[in-house]
TrEMBL record:
Record key words, sorted: Cell inner membrane, Cell membrane, Membrane, Transmembrane, Transmembrane helix, Transport
The organism of origin for this protein: Sneathiella sedimenti
Keyword Cell membrane: yes
Membrane topology reported for the UniProt record: Multi-pass membrane protein
Descriptive protein name: MFS transporter
Transmembrane domains' residue ranges: 12-35, 77-96, 102-128, 140-158, 164-186, 207-228, 240-260, 267-287, 293-312, 333-354, 360-379
All copies of domain Major facilitator superfamily associated, residue ranges: 13-363
Compartmental location: Cell inner membrane
């Protein structure tokens, strides 16, 4: 890798705002968008359907969009186009009314917004192949922005009606478009191998095994995301403490991203994924025992490993194992299958699991991580078998 230069530093400065803007949208949308949907008269079932639109869009459309990025050998251009279209489509929320109209807009935006992380991550990782770009330190600005959006969004809404929520999000989409304009472009020459990249990836057993292992670890967060707050409330934990527990996990994630280059320097991609799986088994087993607040504070620190370390392992796997001319497709399949299909399936079944087993549903999540570790043994035995 070439020595660090001032050009690399300024290049990183151009990349970080993209993550800040993208996760600002998430930080505003996750806690506040259901409030606006309810304000517009949607039922709980209809709100769930609207919120799930980007997840299911990710499964079908993200591989298509990332395949186009590989085909044309560009990364910045699709991000600029998608951010402009998303900004334009979002303005329809100011005039739509009723479930069907709102769902149509949500689905249209979901097709685009669900691909941003895959294409954006691939842009940064592609630059990192030849430049001194520290992906975790760039990515951490997304986590910081998520916390800021959730906190300051609440302050902005304190004296306003839910009608102000689309105004905040519209401004965030405008910021995302402007930040996409700041991004550098990468030019990747197409190859005969790259033209058939999606087919080659889907025919590669080691790559599919990697997607399954990574997805089982990320999908193991489903019970926490779907029922974590509900169960903590049943335990009698205050809302302030619950807020701290959620924020703590993201703060540890930020710290880990900041020091990942040194902490995980000697780790291989597979070892990072395994570390995430082992931590997940410990975390969800303890959570299944319904621990008190002091133990919860300690165990929530593992979020920096169950999510962040496993995610970094997946990013390194794609960077080190996949040829650059088909790397966007690989990123798209990771997003669609590991973070879309498997995570979406986990969220779908999480309600049934929690209803049937209460806090014992976390033991199923520990089992998901155990399955991921068993699957990783295949990759451990054949680390060089990824021939594309």
């Amino acid at each position: 890798m070439p020595p660090f230069t001032s050009n690399d530093f300024f290049l990183s400065i151009r990349l970080a705002p993209f993550y800040a803007a993208l996760f600002l949208i998430v930080g505003l949308q996750l806690p506040f968008w259901p409030v606006w949907l309810s304000f517009k008269g949607l039922s709980a079932e209809e709100i769930g359907i609207v919120l799930s639109a980007p997840v299911w869009s990710k499964i079908l459309f993200t591989p298509m969009i990332t395949s186009l990025a590989d085909y044309f050998g560009r990364r910045r251009a699709p991000l600029v186009i998608m951010s402009a279209l998303s900004l334009a489509l979002f303005q329809l929320y100011f005039v739509v009314d009723g479930f069907l109209q709102i769902f149509a807009v949500a689905l249209s935006i979901g097709i685009l917004i669900s691909s941003f992380s895959a294409v954006g991550d691939n842009l940064v990782l592609t630059l990192g192949r030849t430049r001194n770009i520290d992906y975790p330190r760039i990515r951490l600005w997304g986590s910081i922005s998520f916390i800021g959006g959730s906190f300051f969004g609440g302050l902005l809404l304190a004296e306003r009606t839910p009608d102000f929520i689309p105004v905040m999000l519209s401004a965030a989409f405008l910021l995302l478009f402007l930040c996409c304009l700041l991004l550098p472009e990468v030019h990747i020459s197409p190859s005969e191998q790259g033209k058939k990249g999606l087919r080659r990836l889907l025919k590669s057993p080691p790559f599919l095994v990697f997607l399954l292992a990574a997805g089982l670890i990320q999908g193991s967060h489903a019970i926490l995301y779907a029922a974590g707050t509900l169960h903590w409330q049943k335990q009698g934990i205050s809302d302030a403490t619950i807020g701290f527990l959620w924020a703590e996990g993201v703060i540890v994630e930020i710290i880990l991203f900041a020091f990942a280059k040194h902490l995980f320097k000697s780790f291989s991609p597979l070892q990072l994924i395994v570390l995430g799986g082992i931590s997940g088994m410990i975390r969800w087993t303890v959570m299944g025992l319904s621990p008190d607040v002091p133990v919860l504070i300690f165990i929530q620190m593992l979020h920096g490993v169950t999510f962040a370390a496993a995610h970094l392992g997946a990013m390194r796997f794609i960077t080190e194992k996949i040829p650059v001319e088909m790397s966007a497709r690989a990123q798209g399949l990771y997003s669609a299958i590991s973070l879309g299909l498997i995570m979406g399936g986990g969220l779908f079944f999480s309600g049934y699991l929690y209803e049937s087993f209460s806090v014992g549903a976390y033991f199923f999540m520990a089992g998901s991580c155990a399955m991921a570790l068993l699957i990783c043994q295949y990759l451990r035995r054949a680390p060089e078998s990824l021939q594309l």
